[in-house]
Specification:
Blueprint (H helix, E strand, L loop, with lengths): L30 E10 L5 E10 L10 E9 L6 E6 L10 E9 L2 E8 L2 H6 L8 E6 L2 E5 L18 H8 L3 E2 L1 H8 L5 H4 L19 E3 L2 E3 L6 E2 L2
Parallel strand pairs: 1-9
Antiparallel strand pairs: 1-2, 2-3, 3-4, 5-6, 6-7, 7-8, 10-11, 11-12
Length: 230
Amino acid sequence: MKRMKGNLFVLPASIFALVSLSACADSIGGRVVSWKEQALLHDGSVMEVSRTVRIGGHNVMYPSNYTEQSITFTLPETGKEITWEEPFKSDMGGTSLQPITVEVEKETAYIVSSPINCITYSYWGMPNPPYIIYAYRGDQWGQIALADLPEYVKRPNIIVSGPATTKERMGVSLFTVEQVDSLNKSLSYPQLNSILRGPVGPESMITSCLKYTRHGTAWETRNPNNKFGQ
């Protein structure tokens, strides 16, 4: 397993951030880890978000994978609590996205995320710039195009890399805006440093991925010997 700089995983065996935490367990298995962060919004206000990940469970091959994740927050305009969730994907062996930004404008919310590695990048259609974006409108979440994301969404405002690991290391239950910014300064890839509006080159690493295709229980590239999930 190979890990690239800046905590972006791009090889098939490195699907998810590796963590080892003590937390709650339930009938699905694995461990559930939760924490809170202060997200600095485009208008200068601060919104508290609650994040939860499940690590392992679901009988996955790699028990350190993130297998579920969610982000919960309250819309400042209406006081309504909403939750974005990425459930377990059996063909991925876990989750597939790395959330990087949460934004709100009146009754609409946005979450910008990026695929975690080459397999998940292929799964999502290999977009460039490499973003998967969701908008909350009319009481439901739906995927939108980058062109439909407001221009004021410009930067990461939640912990991007290994947040559960960071929680354990720092022993923090609520990360302040200053702590989030400090932790994100170590990010090396341009698509994680700001929200790009045009294609990014090989410096992103993930846009240089070969295309993976699902064949039976395995993901394969053009090299027939390069398989994952057999």
